[in-house]
């Protein structure tokens, strides 16, 4: 259980780092502000249209008597909005990281530089980094969508659907949110998605301790924007301690695929 506290500690360290480097905090706000405007519009639209969507999807309940029709459709409307919010929390980070790739790469490198030691660089052109980030984000979103569908279905189970399922949903969101954020630093170290997932699964509680509080904070409007720079900084600090800092150790095979990422300048261990 100590890993849970350690994960939360990295989140706090990242926020402190940007607080002490005000220029980088402002620099990291820009991508989140752009993405927030788009997502706010989408969620407002979902809030207004969810009841119509549920009504269209449940024509069999048109002739149901009160209160059963209202209970069914109100419950389904709430589930649709929660599902949309669940996806928004996960995709917000992916989209913000994609929009702000040059910003967050620079921020992450500065965190590495301030902590001392070698500063890994991918050595790839910007368009290639954007392509890899977009591709990996789609792969993560497909995994999240699969979990989301399963959890959505489980939401109809009495009691369990209203207690256990939301808790699992937050854990799933937190783990993948941690993956998205640490990817900024780990990708520079030559690690592809498969290896990043293996690494985080080996310290699952650490990832949850970092990601779940962030998911809960992201549910508060505008908070995600202001926490993103510190979240990237904290994820970089977390990534530094997950990888092997010994530069004399050879990287493990399989950390780069199809020429996407060159061999890491520093070795790592899972």
TrEMBL record:
Residues 244-270 are annotated as: Disordered. It is a multi-pass membrane protein. It comes from the Bacteria. InterPro entries: CysZ-like (IPR050480), CysZ/EI24 (IPR059112). PANTHER family: SULFATE TRANSPORTER CYSZ. The chain crosses the membrane at residues 24-50, 70-99, 140-161, 167-186, 206-228. Keywords: Amino-acid biosynthesis, Cell inner membrane, Cell membrane, Membrane, Sulfate transport, Transmembrane, Transmembrane helix, Transport. It is found in: Membrane. The keyword Magnesium does not apply. This is EI24 domain-containing protein.
